[in-house]
Hints:
Blueprint: H1 19-22, E1 24-26, E2 33-35
Antiparallel strand pairs: 1-2
Amino acid sequence: MSKHSKGIHLFRRRRHDDLLERSFVPCAGCGRSVYVFAEQCRSCGDAVQVRAS
């Protein structure tokens, strides 16, 4: 029998979740990436909308 058997898996593998990608949202004013907890965009100064996910 091989070292890595191919048995029945009861639990599916989770999708890759990249925390870094989720930490930034596009600015509505200029489209640049803004940190999710920032109050305003550094580039254009627009207020950042808080979004629940």
